[in-house]
Amino acid sequence: MAITPLTFILSTVLAVLVSLLVSVMVARKNRKIDMVEALKSAE
Questions:
Q1: Please, what is the average pLDDT of the chain?
Q2: Whole-number Å distance between alpha carbons of 1 and 16
């Protein structure tokens, strides 16, 4: 079994893509939160 530079490149690209996908999904959910209502419900 040999680990080539291509393996490192592919794993890095895959990790970045997954990270970006999760980031976009979380940002979408955060945009839908009404901050005023969220603060009111904490009381």
A1: 90
A2: 25
Handedness of CA 5, 9, 12, 18 (dihedral sign): negative
Angle at 38 between CA 34 and CA 40, to 5 degrees: 120
User: Is the pTM for the entire model greater than 0.85?
Assistant: no
Q: What is the DSSP string of 1-43?
A: ----HHHHHHHHHHHHHHHHHHHHHHHHHHHT--HHHHHHHT-
∠ CA 16-18-24, rounded to 5°: 100
